[in-house]
Amino acid sequence: MGLRLLLALCGLATCCRATSVPLVVPEALHLLSRGCNDSDVLAVAGFALKDINKDREDGYVLSLNRVSDVWEHRQDGLGSLFYLTLDVLETDCHVLSKKLWKDCGVRMLHESVYGQCKVAFYVNKPRRVLYLHAYNCTLRPVSRRMIHDTCPDCPAPSTTDLSNPRVLEAATESLAKYNNESTSKQYSLVKITKASTQWVVGPAYFVKYLIKESPCTKSQASSCSLQLSDSKPVGLCKGQLIKTDMKTSVSAECEFFESQVPAPEGENSAAKQGPENLPKEGTASTNPSSKAVPRGSVQYLPDLDDGKPEGSQEKDLHEAFPVQLDLTTNPLGEELDVSFLFLWPVKEKLLVLPFPKRNHRSSECPGPAQMGNPLVLPP
Ligand SMILES: *[C@@H]1O[C@H](CO)[C@@H](O)[C@H](O)[C@H]1NC(C)=O
Ligand SMILES: *[C@@H]1O[C@H](CO)[C@@H](O)[C@H](O)[C@H]1NC(C)=O
Ligand SMILES: *[C@@H]1O[C@H](CO)[C@@H](O)[C@H](O)[C@H]1NC(C)=O
């Protein structure tokens, strides 16, 4: 630790001389540049991503491709606030499935969606607290042009909105088939979440869509217009529609989400602190009834090639994944009351600094990637 701190200090001093920024504030001395392949950093990144996925209600579970940058801000006797920049990949699991990212399969290259998240994550090991303070992510689909160059026959992504009537047709036909084969419940379409097309023996449409339970019975199916007002999506289906002159072939395959029974609140806070409850991966958790509010969002941007003349790509690569995480405008930081994370009635405050800029990144960053193909790594 001593050496690390010293190195960090030297680093700060050099940077300050070079850019003539005013004096380093004392608190900044606790801001340590960490290695992106350090085992504890990888563990923290894993917990942070798990909580991000848990916080979301839309889209697919994100998995960790690599840690791109990491700073640890040691708080006096109160654990550490980590400022993480994570390179992520979309998996096959919908966030509503509540599956852990480590249990989800990564997409094939031609259907990859990748991006970057900035996260402020608080860790207090002795008091067994893990808390997601704020995050923001930006995602893009893999470059269609690059995929086409190497795999001209791969399915090409298609819009999931109604601008392509064939996509909607594929989803409704697929669901009709599923409902027809279902012996009990009937389902209706919530929305299409993925779509792609490919020439097989004729045009083929592949879709993924969310379904909810329909109050209609099978005999009413086609004429039924009853709607359950607040019914939630219950599953994710995969369908395809292939048309040739001779025949139409339709398929449907649905996976249902595990019922989402929320854990009783008392149990949750007990799990956080009792010394006999050692944290296992996946148990320590953030408090759902927290007072500190900021969480975050995931922004989807189009393919990097869209709307760009060929060759002009290299220019503003760093603006290609704009991820904004404004924690505070005060360069000296701002206090954050985290008393609610602890059982006893004591005021506990963290110091939150502005998210560190990437231009003084640690030499041990980025870390090794799970999927090292440059097509799915943000610059
Ligand atoms: C519904 O299923 C039955 C058999 O289970 C089949 O004979 C019928 O053709 C199916 N209808 C549609 C529209 O798929
Ligand atoms: C997250 O990003 C959005 C824009 O995508 C921005 O409006 C919002 O302020 C950001 N949140 C934080 C905490 O910076
Ligand atoms: C990352 O860490 C693991 C285990 O600690 C090690 O085996 C691996 O070689 C490291 N990779 C890099 C690129 O440093």
UniProtKB/TrEMBL annotation:
Residues 1-18 form the signal peptide. Pfam families: Cystatin (PF00031). GO terms for molecular function: cysteine-type endopeptidase inhibitor activity; metalloendopeptidase inhibitor activity. Keywords: Disulfide bond, Glycoprotein, Repeat, Secreted, Signal. Residues 305-314 have a biased composition (Basic and acidic residues). It is found in: Secreted. Gene3D superfamilies: 3.10.450.10. Residues 261-314, 359-379 are annotated as: Disordered. One of its GO terms (cellular component) is extracellular space. The keyword Disulfide bond applies. One of its GO terms (biological process) is binding of sperm to zona pellucida. The keyword Secreted applies. Its main location: secreted. This is Fetuin B. It comes from Loxodonta africana. The gene is FETUB.
